[in-house]
Predict the 3D structure of the following.
Amino acid sequence: MIPPIAGRFVAGETPAAAFEHVRRTNEDGVNVILNLLGEHYHDRAEAETDADAYVSLIRDIGDTDLDACVSVKPSQLGIDIGDDVFRENFRRVVAAGDEHGVFVWCDMEDADTTDATLDAFEALAREFDGGVGLCVQANLRRTRGDLDRLVDVPGRIRLVKGAYDEPESIAYTDKADVNEAYREDLEFLFKERDDGIAVGSHDPAMISLAEELHAEHGADYEVQMLMGVRDDEQRRLAADGVEVWQYAPYGDRWLSYFYRRVRERKENALFAVRAVLGV
Ligand code: FAD
């Protein structure tokens, strides 16, 4: 069972627990992106098992009136085993999403996988007429060029700052440079697209910028944040009429995800210490 301390960031171990979280979160006007925890598989069977789990999750979401969709990771669907394995599993999940009316996002992982992920996304976005979305990382120097390529591809784009440590040769490593690249990428998306823009950030400066760009250019957008991070702000934005999607992981591989959340920010670490001490 997930201890309460990790339950802030993880929606439960089973689909039933995750659905209960979605139901409660939807009551606050916040939609949910479910991610089955799992990554970096080197065994084809593991990747196929998770693809099967997504297909059945999508069928179950389609049978409810919940405001939920899913997000998969390339390495969970087998990209470390082979690009063909990833493409096959990803296609199966997107086809299920298409059949049951459930949107499918794809996370972006380390830079070695960017090309294969972009190629698979573009092919599926065209085949399924936009029922799929892709995360792109502002910290990568290549991303402005990738956005030129993606701008006319159907589907959605989630812009994040980037969670992977990449070398200076291919990535901005200074926080100010990453923020500047994020602003430029967001401006580009609002100028070039009419919709399908997701602001994947907890940063108040980026969320305000999206509001301003929406007022100026009119393109529709949504804000995406992680479960357990600025939950009050998620509810406040939703009450203000912004489309908000919360990324909520679930599954029994929650321990490493929880440690990542605690390590990445002082606020999260303090929360963990307080929970342990009961203060
Ligand atoms: P930061 O630059 O970390 O922080 C900026 C400001 O935001 C802070 O000064 C503070 O005001 C506020 N803030 C941030 N965190 C907190 C907090 N815990 N409590 C209170 N205030 C806070 N990365 C990938 O590489 N690939 C992915 O596929 C991917 N998917 C993501 C999906 C979603 C929905 C989200 C939200 C993030 C995803 N990320 C992904 C992670 C992302 O790349 C960043 O590492 C992460 O979001 C931190 O950057 P930030 O923009 O939120 O703000």
In short: The longest helix spans residues 44-62. Residues 35 and 249 are 4 Å apart (CA to CA). The chain has one domain: 4-277. DSSP finds eleven helices and eight strands in the chain.
